[in-house]
Amino acid sequence: MSAAKTLQPGEIVLDHASRAFSIRADRGGTLKELLLRRRSDGPAPIQALADVTLHIPPGQTVGIVGRNGAGKSSTLKVLAGIVPLDSGSVDIGGRIVSLLELGAGFGRDFSGRENILLGGALHGLSKAQIEEKLDDIIAFSELGDFIDVPVKTYSSGMYVRLGFAIAAHLDADVLLIDEVLAVGDEAFQRKCEARIAGQVEKGATLVLVSHDAALIERTCERVVVLDGGHVVFDGPSAEGMEYYHRQMNTPTPASIAEAGGP
Amino acid sequence: MAELKRYRYLFEQMVRRELRQKYQGSALGVAWYIVNPLVLTGAYYFMFGVVFTQTKHADYPLFLMVGLVVWIFFSQALMSAAPSLLDQGALIRKAPFPRETIPAAVVTVQMVTFLVVLGLVAVVTLVFRGSFSVWLVLLPVVLAALYVFVLGLSLAVAVLHAHFRDVAPILSAALLPWFFVSPIFFAPGDITDKATAKFVMEWVNPVAPFIEAIRRVVYDGHAPSVAGLAYVVLIAAAALAIGRTLFGRLQSELAVIV
């Protein structure tokens, strides 16, 4: 797509993006299923993104909210380039850094320091680029001597601190964060927010998925409310959160059906 | 290609990690990779050099060993590449780096081990048999072709196994008979009365020309045949092309299925 070339660093364009997931207990198939074409057994696929069109200019801070299963995490995975779309397109300018699955990707037998190197390498940084940031990342993580201990001995709080410290120091043009900050203690959360604000000030785009209304209102200027894969609200965060709260207080279509209502 | 270059450091780290994990926590470490072909050599020497004394290959243990180490590299690389994408699912779900890095790192680790073991076997063979010749300069060419060949197959096997979990068991079932028809304890030239069988074993089995070429240079001290050299280079290019195409087609859903 030629549009990709004209994007500025930090710009995000989702154009009629759709993506469905089939729900299966075991995610891989077998050859037998392929030959017998039985893959369609089981529950119907879930539409995680349904014709989503979004334009996020560089430097904007966007919160994505919605019920569980509304498509928030899928949106981030699509933006991160990890999951492809069924139809439509996604284009992002510059370096994307995502903090999606907490702790995942951390070699458990390797030390915090080695995981910093791996985390940087996963995002395409060279050895020199990562080593230059190593001290800052270690300092930010507040892990002290634990930095040279295998991460399998870490508490969940230490995991997050390491993960966030890495993500926050990779010079992202687009920062994607999925509901992981809540795990750290309050002091560290404040530090993270300050760090994010600093990145945004330097021009980075932030896309944040969270159920923490206060956090969204503090950090995001724009809110996108998703429901069933559709964008149901897109606008300033104060109004967006109001919409979201109203939505949360109304019953879901599923619960109406369960109650036997019309 | 530029993408792959940007992720060179990731590849480097994966190789180093894997090497460390392989050799840590076992008392013998690297030595295991020598012990394995030695034990097999002992068994085959006993069967075909002592019990059924039909072989006309001098210094039969050395003849066996050269073929065995090539086969062990081939089979180990494929067997460890097959589950590699599933094993590294956590990394795949974390960032959109080129997924080829994972099987490529696995094959490279096996290649490093293979080169060390082959180096030892080659030195012993060259000294013991006096097979040192100018044709040794062609050995790196054959080894490079072997690496590319195995890399291509590994890309295919890894991405297929991620989609269809029965690829690894099928592969492991195929490798055993494949081993017996490969020219490891014999040379295709030993077959004198069955022309079709000889042809099949010499040219249809793509591993055979690699074993033959390496053995010609290291064990015989002769030039590999021109046809053999052309074969290994072409089959390597073909395997890589097929592996990359298949990988390219099947990789997009990896974060969802692994």
UniProtKB/TrEMBL annotation, chain A:
Tree of life domain: Bacteria
Keywords of the record: ATP-binding, Nucleotide-binding, Transport
Segments forming a coiled coil: none
CDD domains: ABC_KpsT_Wzt
Pfam families hit by this protein: ABC_tran (PF00005)
SMART domains: AAA (SM00382)
GO molecular function, one term: ATP binding
Domain spans labelled ABC transporter: 31-253
Xref: InterPro entries: AAA+_ATPase (IPR003593), ABC_transporter-like_ATP-bd (IPR003439), ABC_transpr_TagH-like (IPR015860), Bact_Polysacc_Export_ATP-bd (IPR050683), P-loop_NTPase (IPR027417)
Family: Belongs to the ABC transporter superfamily.
Protein name: ABC transporter ATP-binding protein
Organism annotation: Paraconexibacter antarcticus
From TrEMBL, chain B:
Membrane topology designation: Multi-pass membrane protein
Subcellular location field: Cell inner membrane; Cell membrane
Keywords: Cell inner membrane, Cell membrane, Membrane, Transmembrane, Transmembrane helix, Transport
This protein's record includes keyword Protein transport: no
TM region positions: 26-48, 60-81, 102-128, 134-160, 167-186, 226-247
Ranges for domain ABC transmembrane type-2: 28-250
UniProt keyword Membrane present: yes
Coiled-coil portions: none
Pfam families: ABC2_membrane (PF01061)
PANTHER family attached to this UniProt entry: INNER MEMBRANE TRANSPORT PERMEASE (PTHR30413), TRANSPORT PERMEASE PROTEIN (PTHR30413:SF8)
Family as reported in the entry's similarity comment: Belongs to the ABC-2 integral membrane protein family.
Name the record gives this protein: Transport permease protein
